[in-house]
Amino acid sequence: MRDFCITTDSNSDLPQEYIDKLDTTIIPQYYSFGDTIYGDELHMPPKEFYERMRNGELPQSQANNPAIIEDKFRSILDKGMDIIHIGFSSALSGSYNNVCMVAKELSAEYPDAKITVVDSLNVSLGESIMVIHANNMKAKGISYDEIVADLEEFKNHINVQFTVDDLFHLQRGGRVSKTVAVVGSALNLKPYLYVNNAGGLSSDGTARGRKKSLRVLVERMKATLEENTDTSLPVGIVHGNCLEEAHYVADLVKQETAFTNIIINDISPSIGTHAGPGALGILYYGQFKQPPK
After folding, report:
1. Percentage above 90 pLDDT, the chain
2. pTM (2 decimals)?
3. Greatest alpha-carbon span in the chain
4. Nearest CA among 34, 53, 25, 95 for reference residue 269
5. pLDDT tens for residues 84-106?
6. CB neighbour class for 35 (10 Å; exposed up to 12, middle 13-18, buried from 19)
7. Sheet harboring 26-27: ordered strands across?
8. Within a 13 Å sphere around the CA of 243, how many CA atoms are in the beta-carbon half?
9. Sign of the torsion formed by the C-alpha atoms of 174, 274, 134 and 26
10. Using a CB cutoff of 8 Å and minimum separation of 24, what contacts does 17-21 make?
11. How do residues 213-255 score in pLDDT, each as one tens digit?
12. Is 105 helix (H, G, I), strand (E, B) or coil?
């Protein structure tokens, strides 16, 4: 049986320690300030990225680069290995389709190889939980085909709940109207959003005040856990340059649930472009994801 590699993209926010431990290949996603493009060889520290946003600069996100995808996949295939790629939700980016296009072209050139592109229907550490889960199965000797089949079910249980601190970034991305952004900001309303079972974003109410919005975020998580949830799986907490609040939410999760393995990481700039500074999310295995609203 051929060996295989599980790959993902930088929107997964997979921490470097896991990239090294799992020997994971990462496909870069891109973002720009003006004419300067970041994401591959050129990177910007997350703190600087979000500070520039707070100061009024508006970055743009960009899809992945087919030429880079090809180079990275080819380096794996040339070692005689197959590929399972776990990609950013197709409902939120054209990146998934780019990977599928490259995979199709390389499959013709490497007819003995398997290349499967899994649409995670998820974002950020939601993808990472899938990557970690897939690698755990691989370590147990579970076959390529069994892992692919499992991921198609597993992904539907990865819940992504988040809130943002500034409605105007959502308004700029077309998620809320300008009226909602103006009124909501005046009333100090913090919206709740989630990734639905179609892989898109849906809104689901508001809370007044930042601290309350974070507490309710954990309550919403508890309400969507299954009775027999595998609490050995990691919980992801991602943030837009608000690390102290991320630790506050992590402590709440440990107090209110049986999860103990919590991964905290920055929201990658290509996602943070739309969420803005102060965005904070919880990503975890729970009930079957809600349909779009």
Report:
1. 77
2. 0.93
3. 61
4. 53
5. 999 999 999 999 999 999 999 99
6. exposed
7. 26-27, 4-9, 82-87, 115-119
8. 5
9. positive
10. 18/128, 18/131, 18/132, 18/263
11. 999 999 999 999 988 888 999 999 999 999 999 999 999 999 9
12. helix
Residue keyed to tokens 């995979």:
103
Tokens for 77?
């295939």
Return the pLDDT at 16: 95
What residue spans define the domains of the chain? 4-155, 157-285
Q: What six digits make up the tokens of 40?
A: 């591959």
Q: Is residue 9 predicted with pLDDT exceeding 90?
A: yes
The amino acid that residue 67 corresponds to is A
Q: Does domain 157-285 have CATH number 3.30.1180.10?
A: yes
The contacts found for 50-55 with CB under 8 angstroms, 24 or more apart, are: 50/240, 50/241, 50/272, 50/276, 50/277, 51/241, 51/277, 53/169, 53/272, 53/276, 53/277, 54/277
Assigned token pair, 16: 């470097």
Is 3.40.50.970 the CATH number for 4-155?
A: no
The SS3 of residue 193 is strand
